[in-house]
Amino acid sequence: MSEQARKQSDPSETAVEFSADSKRRFDEILKRYDSKRSALLPVLHLAQNEFGSVHDRVVEYVAKIMDLSPAQVLEVVTFYHMYHRKPQGENHLQFCATISCWMNGSHQLYKSTCSRLGIKDGEVTPDGKFSVQRVECLGSCGSAPVVQVNETYYENLTPEKLNRLINSCKEGNPQRP
Fold it and tell me: In this structure, are residues 48 and 54 in contact, taking their beta carbons and an 8 Å threshold?
C-alpha cells in the first residue's frame, strides 16, 4: 500500500485543524459558556462533524484549543456513545443492549441486522452506508426495543419495522418515526 493510500485509509494520519467556518462556529460556541471546559461537548460535536470521528489526532487538537489535557478530552469522548473514535457509516445504527431492550428482542434485531448487512459490531459496510454498534442504555426503556439511527430514535421495533427502516436508509431516504 502506498503512503498516500495508507494515509487516506487512516484518518489519524491527516492534518487536523478546523476549517474557517468551523473556527467561526468554535468562537461562537465559546461565547455561550463561562469556561472553555463547559463548552467541551459542543466543541467535540463540531470536531466530529468536521473530521468524521474523534480519533487521537482530533483529541490532541481539541485538547490544545480548549486548554485541556488529552486525557481530559478522552475521558469525555469515551464516556458518551455519541462520540466515535473511528468513522461511522452514513447510517449509524446503535442498538440498546440493556435489560429492557434485550428482554424485548434487541439482541435478535442486532444479530439479524449484522447478518443482513454482513458486518460485525463497530464495522462499516464496504459501501459506507451502514455501521452497527451495541450501546448501553438509550434511555427509552418504556418503548423497548430501541435503535438510534444517527440522531433519531426508533422505538417499539419489530423485525418488520426494522427491515422497512433499513430499506428506507438504503434508498437514501430514512423513514421518520
Answer: yes
